[in-house]
């Protein structure tokens, strides 16, 4: 009798163990992503925005600053072609980033965006961005990369400056592995 | 029925006896304590003076990492499991643990886990060097190749802890003697009951986080890699969701041990038994909602900082209840100061100091100053060394006469206590000052201005280490002989374990005792 009771407790606890493992690996990361999207935590911006014809608020201007950072030993030259612009909320604008691969190797890069202040992240919509895809560049090649965005009309009045920062990662190894796997 | 232990080495290999397994856990944890201690002494020897003298920075980082991992998973946790194995069946009047074969298994996988982890020291690229918290990407993108061995070692020790916890819960729920209701259980049993639930809840999360690392390193996923759409900050959240309950796993059984010892030597029943139970449960519950206080500086919204700050401070309430109860138990008692009592009283005082520095760290704006300094090192060593280590030592001195039937040498025990007490405070108290003046953690070299405090710390560390050798000697001498202990050992101690003969026979409570 006691042995049966012990097995019941053991199975129940083992079930909890498996459930907690699944929670850690399959539930916590998606919850974290949703949480970051809602709060703008880490300045994560959303995916491609489908432009809706919104009115433009001509009465105010927001300064948008552009930054470019190379992650650790990434050898590319990577910079915004204008360091800042003034936009009206609701207005769609296009800016360009410039990248050169100075090495003798063909490489693939991935730019990861971040917006500061966090509370502006959900109001910063990108209708077109080079960060949506990875960027392959042949040895010695240069490119201009386009970014189109709208600062939402609903952005808080206290936000006068938005800083958009891109960090460029070298993903050549991972991208090569992937293309080999696809073939 | 009445058969003794088997002969030879296979006795230990095949044993399902809770006392044998408890002894093996305790010896194993003491060996790991010495190994982790050697790593600590390498660190303190290097930090004796500014500049690089003894080890390369690469090896220094491996030493801080291995010291933390070995002490947490190899010394403290198995020691508590060992005490649980020995004492819980005897305290609740059970003949053995509920799942004796699994008990054997959960012990015997541990030496393999730690053999695997320490073997990384001899591998190309060296042992893990990213700190015991193994933050990504240090532990993924920039990790030495040996990280995979580390991951599997963590999996194995996690499995061991989970099996131990299941066993303890099943034993407490189903094996209590007739009349032993939940609210009559000794506090050591209660605190372990709650600790076991914490283990069940968070060890799988630890297994999950290292599994995600394994996939990031070898299978091209990007849980923690920003380039692939992941986030290294996610690592910190998942890790500390495990890590904060983990630090309570290392302290709740300690509360149980001192709650057994203080009433015996104050010759008064424990003050506020039921409030102790509820306080333990509250602390366990709160441990799940405070994890982000380890990462105040990572960039959180203000609301998050405030919520985690207030929740953390709230933990001081049930902890304060406990300290109040211990002090009140001693108040107007006929106190004597045998070695276990000395360690327990030191526990109450020094653990409270560690609790206060914890409150200072909980203040989010102040934490920006303290974060990753030696103040943090001072804080968690004040809660872990006089907390976990002193309580385990107190427990060993308290129950050793029951285990082996001989009294330990009281003079040597007291000398051990005073050397350890002085050594501990010399080591860790100056770290508060070094930390407040800005000395960062995990560095092999430091500014001249921290030289004096570090020299004091290093001297204290070697004193503390030497005291432990005396402990080992005393325990071995007691097992080999000495003055015979009575069945009660102490004066009117409370609990079923004192009703059996000294030394405790190989099988106790084959017929359950009647508890009224």
From TrEMBL, chain A:
The keyword Membrane applies. Its main location: membrane. The chain crosses the membrane at residues 12-32. GO terms for molecular function: copper ion binding. It comes from Pseudoteredinibacter isoporae. Belongs to the COX11/CtaG family. Exerts its effect at some terminal stage of cytochrome c oxidase synthesis, probably by being involved in the insertion of the copper B into subunit I. GO terms for cellular component: plasma membrane. The lineage of its organism: Bacteria, Pseudomonadati, Pseudomonadota, Gammaproteobacteria, Cellvibrionales. Keywords: Copper, Membrane, Signal-anchor, Transmembrane, Transmembrane helix. It is a single-pass type II membrane protein. It is found in: Cell inner membrane. This is Cytochrome c oxidase assembly protein CtaG.
TrEMBL record, chain B:
Pfam families: COX1 (PF00115). It is a multi-pass membrane protein. Residues 12-516 form the Cytochrome oxidase subunit I profile domain. Pathway: Energy metabolism; oxidative phosphorylation. One of its GO terms (biological process) is oxidative phosphorylation. InterPro entries: Cyt_c_oxase-like_su1_dom, Cyt_c_oxase-like_su1_sf, Cyt_C_Oxase_1, Cyt_c_Oxase_su1_BS, Cyt_c_oxase_su1_dom, Cyt_c_oxidase_su1_bac. Its main location: membrane. PANTHER family: CYTOCHROME C OXIDASE SUBUNIT 1 (PTHR10422). This is Cytochrome c oxidase subunit 1. The lineage of its organism: Bacteria, Pseudomonadati, Pseudomonadota, Gammaproteobacteria, Cellvibrionales.
